[in-house]
Amino acid sequence: MPLSTTEHTHLGIYFSLTRKRMKNIRLRVIAPSGEVKVSAPHRARVEDVLHFIAEKQVWIRQHQQRIQAQIPDTPVPEQDLEHLREPMKQRIAELLPIWEQRMHVRASSFGVRKMKTRWGSCNIRTRKIWLSLALAAKDEDLLEYVLVHELVHLKEAGHNARFYGFMDEYMPDWREKHKRLNPNARIRL
């Protein structure tokens, strides 16, 4: 059977439903829009899909809020930030050795790229740090905050009490910076 996609709303959640060859109903919340996509077997009844949405509604809304909170709120389109890429990389190159020495960690390398849902990321395996080009439009101390945040991941992979303990140790005012960078986000401690 060919794929078929229809649009639906249930419990205030707008979603697209694609029917295809598969065994179970699946759900995705797509960044940066927060769009909900459901895939279901051809044999699944609409009632089954709606029941699935009802069961997952809290998770869907939480995920949409998390995505919305992570989206960089940049007043300047990222294509207009390209000319700031090299100065931003130069500033990171200045900050990185200072923080590596302070924290007793070493990143293998760093890069700057366009990111839709994050300010930065750290590949624990390769020890490479990526920072969002959108940070070029933010205050310099926020760039430093994100850099420290990613370096802390070299000490603790997850966002847990140990991670936040390191953040408190290395950058005691990180919560204020986090709030400025993500005014709608909620920090879970």
UniProtKB/TrEMBL annotation:
Residue ranges constituting the YgjP-like metallopeptidase domain according to the UniProt record: 23-75, 83-182
Family annotation (InterPro entries): UTP_pyrophosphatase-like, YgjP-like_metallopeptidase
Domain of life: Bacteria
Entries under PANTHER family matching the protein: UNCHARACTERIZED PROTEIN YGJP, UTP PYROPHOSPHATASE
Protein name per UniProt: M48 family peptidase
